[in-house]
Sequence to fold (386 residues):
Amino acid sequence: MAEAADLERTEAPSQRRLEQAREEGQVARSRELNTFALLSAAAIGVWLSAEGLRNAFAGLLRSALSFSPALAADPAAMLARFEALAVHASVAIAPLLALLFAVALIAPLLLSGWLVSAKALAPDFSRLNPLRGLANIFSWSGLAELGKAIGKVVLIIGVAAWASLAYTERTMGLASEPLSAAIAHGSRILGLCFLAVVGSLAVIAAIDVPFQIWHYRSKLKMSKEDLRREAKEQEGDPQIKAAIRSQQREMARKRMMAAVPQADVVVVNPTRYAVALRYDDAKMRAPRVVAKGMHLLAARIRALAAENGVPVLEAPPLARALYRHAQVGDEVPAALYAAVAEVLAWVFQLRRHASHGGRAPAAPADIAVPAGFDPEQSARTASSLS
Fold:
C-alpha cells in the first residue's frame, strides 16, 4: 500500500520538472486566447482603418471598372493593370495584416513566454498510433475539450443570434436609406455584431486560460518516489558522495603528510596532539600550520618528523591551542605569536648548534598560552566554577 501511494502522482511538479517540460516544448497553451487576441486585433484594426480602407478600395474599384476598349483588347496591358491594382490593394491592407501578424506572435507569449525547443520539432511517430488517438479522445482531457468546443459553439451562436435579433429593425431599414448611408449604417451594425461575438470569446478565453494552466500542471504532477529520485539526482547518491569525500580527505591527508618533512618544528601533547609549523620570513607574514592530527595521525606526524630530522617539542597547552584554533594552511592566531616565537627561537638555536657546535640549547618548558585558548584549561575552569 505504501509503495502504491508513492507511485500516485499527488505532488506538485518541482521547478526542475517544469524546466525539463519546457525544454521538451511542453508549455501551457490556450487556442481560445490566441483566437480572441486575433479577432480583437482584427476588430480594432478594421475599426481604426475603416475610413482609409473604404476610400482605398473605392478608388481601386473605380480604377478597375474604368478602362478603354483598346486596353481590354491588349492582354499584356490588362495584366500590367491587374498587377498595379494588386500592389495598391496589398499596400492598403498591409497595416492590418502586419497588426494581425504581430498579435499572432505575441498572443502565445502571454501565457507561456518565449520558447524555442528543438525537441518539439523532432518527429514523434507514436502520434500516428490510432490506439493512442482513441485513448486521447475518450480521456478526461478529450472529453473536456469536447465540452469546451460545444460550449463555445453554443455561446457564439447564441450571441450572434441575439445581436442579429437586436438589430433586425435597423437592418430592415437600410433598404429605405440612400446607398452611401445604408453602407455606412450596415457596416456599423456588422461591426457591433462582430464585437459582440469577440466579447463572447473573451468569456471563453477567461475560462480556458486557468483551465489550461491547471491541466498543464496536473499532467506534470509527480509521485513521492519521483521527488525522491529527482532530489537524489540533483544532490548525488549519498554513497557516491561519501566515497568522494573520503577520497578528498585521503588526498588532503597525503598532501599534509608530504609537508611534514619541510616543517620547522612539530609541537606535541605528547601523544594525543601533533601540530607541524613552518615559517619562511621571506614569504610568510607569520608561521603557518602545515599539518596537524590526533591519536594515530599524530603518531604518524611524529614518526615522519623523526625520520626527517624535524625537531619535536612537547608543549601540551600550545599543541592543544594550535590544534583547536588553527586549520591546516592557516597562519597561527595572533594571540599565540609569543608562544610560537619562543618555540621558533629554540629551533634556530638548534640549527646554530648543529652547524657551529657547542652546548645544546635546552628545550623551552611551561610555554604559556593566553587564557581561553587551551581547551583543557577552559574545561577545568568551567568544571571548577560549576
Notes: Residues 179-219 form the longest helix (41 residues). The first strand starts at residue 265 and ends at 268. The two ends are 55 Å apart (CA to CA). The chain has a mean pLDDT of 80.
